[in-house]
Specification:
5 strands, single chain, globular, alpha/beta
């Protein structure tokens, strides 16, 4: 197997998963940084283009450093369908316009090769195993609350082998001390709003 190419912090994988509570279905938007493993999530009632770009705006507000690349699948929430991309009447999607305005390269996974976005697929599975597969939620609010706690514990308390025993947040702070030009704000002075 080939190893992932090394990237500086700011390369995010995005995906959507479906979750259930007693109140019904919700869509879980998940973003994880390929290098720092920092994760951001948001629950939405629908998985459409609007909720996708709203999640992107939320991600840009929460992450203390510059995002340079976003990798998504070819879903209609993130990209125009391949058959419509080069038509004269096709227009830019709001998701792409936000990426362009922030200097972000929007990459798409190869069609029929979902494992090219495997990092976020694995994070989806981890989140589901820690929440909806293990517990019953009577309301969406219960799930939101538990999800907030889980993501905070992951980002601020989970030590990862790939980060040499650091938590994602500790890794971000270490990068801040060695390469502060990548940052928009000082992460040590920020309470990262990971709310869903």
């Amino acid at each position: 197997r080939q190893r992932f190419r090394r990237y500086p912090i700011g390369f995010f994988h995005l995906d959507i998963a479906e979750v259930q509570t007693a109140e019904g279905k919700l869509h879980l938007f998940v973003a994880i940084d390929r290098t720092s493993k920092f994760a951001v999530v948001q629950l939405a009632d629908n998985a459409n283009r609007r909720t996708a770009w709203e999640f992107l705006e939320h991600l840009l507000r929460v992450v203390p450093y510059r995002i340079h690349t976003i990798l998504t699948d070819n879903g209609i929430q993130f990209a125009e369908q391949p058959r419509n991309r080069s038509m004269a009447w096709s227009r830019s999607m709001r998701f792409d316009m936000i990426c362009e305005a922030n200097g972000i390269e929007h990459r798409l996974t190869k069609p029929n090769h979902p494992w090219t976005n495997g990092q976020v697929e694995r994070m989806n599975r981890t989140i589901k195993e820690a929440t909806v597969k293990r517990f019953h939620y009577d309301s969406h609010e219960q799930l939101r609350s538990h999800l907030n706690d889980f993501i905070a514990a992951y980002n601020f308390g989970r030590r990862l082998k790939t980060l040499k025993g650091l938590t994602p947040y500790e890794y971000i702070c270490r990068i801040w001390t060695s390469d502060p030009k990548r940052f928009i704000i000082n992460p040590t002075h920020q309470t990262l709003g990971l709310n869903t």
